[in-house]
Model the fold of this input.
Amino acid sequence: MEERFASCFLRKARKLGVADINKRGGEKTVKRISQSGGDAIFIPTDVSKEKQVEKLMKGGYL
Done:
């Protein structure tokens, strides 16, 4: 699901931040996006934690 969403989103955006609690899965997704010509970064985030999501949104990663 995550990778299909990322692929769809990249058609409209130039950069993509992959936020996930699963480091291995997130980095794998970033690698696949990069291999497909996209630009992405992995940001370790537990999206079930409000404070982490707030930090992610304020982080200026992209």
Summary: The chain has one domain: 2-58. Residues 2-58 form one domain. The helical segments are 2-10, 23-35, 50-58. The longest strand covers residues 15-20.
